[in-house]
Amino acid sequence: MRLLILSKESMPFESDALYTFIRAVTEADDEIVLRSVATNADIAARLQDATTFDRCVVAGDDQVIASALFALRGLSVPVLVFPNGMENLYFESLGNSHEPAALAKACREGRTVSADLGLISWSDPQGTIHTHPFSCMVGFGFDATLLRTAIPNKEALGGLSYILAALSIKKIPRATFDITLDNNRFTVDGIACLVANSPMLGADIEIVSGSSINDGTLDIVVVQATDSMRLIRPVFAGVLDHKGTNLGRPEMAHYQGVSVTVQSSEALPLQVNGEPTPYEINGYKARILQGANQLIVDHVSPYAAVSIREAPQRDNR
Questions:
Q1: pTM for the predicted model, two decimal places
Q2: If you ran DSSP here, which 8-state letter would residue 16 be given?
């Protein structure tokens, strides 16, 4: 088996898990190529020959994963998402085991599921258009403000930085969101408008019930809470009911569609895969790339039952 592994340099909280995986996956006559990239801009260039390999492993946080999956979109090579770094919500959505040995076994078996990917574009205050893929979520409004406040302390405090950031925000801006979803248009007031491909929010909490990475649609969620006390309701519901099947998601309006345009009455910050912009914008466009990647799943993943095939291996002798 020829295996290409792409890893981001100097990931926060990195461990030796990737090297444990390499030892576990390697067998006689295998060829393992490990490539390290310094920035997301290098990722596409480092994956140009991906189809000459039997498998591709992408190790990194959600930002790295999204950039790599976009570079690999439409290709038949099976991709294993490997958690490395602080934010790994997309890996959590896949539901694979965290154990390197289990991931190595899944990599050799090559059982895959066809997975979607999101794509967003917006214009910055100077008029420059930005286009970025997202594997997990785009946040417009309060959650982007929260991330902006938490980031300086994230490496030192981890998840505690988000709690401290939430406590430090005295006023939550409220806006009117004009949403065009496929052929439908409606207006909703709220403090944030989220667009998600992956259902996972963190701490094993799903944003809405029934969402998945292979349903061919985006989930659009408007957080309608007007103050911190009302914001506690959906958070509390998520803690008690991770999947949202019993308590639902109070203070949230939920829609689904293939493409969406969002315009806000107020200029708000944007975050893509956990990375907030340093400026405010008035809107964006997003769409789903259906079946963009063939992702490797193991036996414990909820997607194992709908996996489409087991990938072949080349004879390298």
A1: 0.82
A2: S
